[in-house]
Input
Amino acid sequence: MMVVLKGLVLLLASVLVLLFPPLPMLAVAFARWDDEPTPDQWGTTPTRRGDLPRWARWMQTMDDRLPGGTYEPTVARMLERWGHYWTSVYWIGWRNRAHGLRRTFGRPSTEEAYKASFQPDANGRVYGVRSDGSWYWERRALGFRLVVGHRVYRIKPGEYLAVPTVTVKRG
Output
């Protein structure tokens, strides 16, 4: 029950960021940027990286510094065309809303749990418990997926975090 409650708090924080777009814009305006380009956690796409101020850290992704996700083609193109500011606003305000808050609710996990995958049953339901005790439940209906449980993130090599999640996705 606690996982669902924490997941709902994260969902509400995400909705707050969506309903109040100036919040990520303001946070990125106060970000502190490195002087020199550095690669992302995967060792690719060197660019200047930054961090949000302390009051806005609940929005920053736990596994990649701003501008975030430069290994993704969409983000790389956005960075090239719109620069660090707007790419960062997109990253924390649309692509990964309230992501930093997840670290607060997360718990240590393992690489094995990170790589675990679950297959749908005959009714389209997905359920599974990973080796670290984290669980995942998914139900598909009307072109959407309701996902409840934990999502396991790779924070950096050798460090994984199981984070409560409640979300609705297309597909």
